[in-house]
Amino acid sequence: xxxxxxxxxxxxxxxxxxxxxxxxxxxxxxxxxxxxxxxxxxxxxxxxxxxxxxxxxxxxxxxxxxxxxxxxxxxxxxxxxxxxxxxxxxxxxxxxxxxxxxxxxxxxxxxxxxxxxxxxxxxxxxxxxxxxx
Length: 133
What we know:
The chain is α+β, with helices and mostly antiparallel strands and 133 residues long. Helix content is 24%, strand content 43%. It has 1 helix and 6 strands. It has a 3-stranded antiparallel β-sheet with strand order 1-2-5, with no helix packed on it. A hairpin with a 2-residue loop joins strand 1 and strand 2. The protein starts with 16 loop residues before the first helix and ends with a strand.
């Protein structure tokens, strides 16, 4: 009696369905990978190069129970105008002051101290962010 083989001879009947599916998955994965890399590059370029204004808080000083002075360094294009938002918080974390400061100077670097009025004694100050206008 002869033994029965469970597999077909390799290469005799063309590609199997699994090989075709694997090839399609590899192609789809490569296309999605290229699209993902393209999107990440575009977002990165927009975030780094196209930013027209950015700022850094150098320090803050709690002057009184109702006032905090915030020292900012703003970097921007010379002709750019923008607004930076400052926020102060009390010891329990509640927001006690907020101020939008306009940066309209015709310079590429602005180094200035702004005063934020508060409703209670602040223990911290932070730069929320800056937007170009």
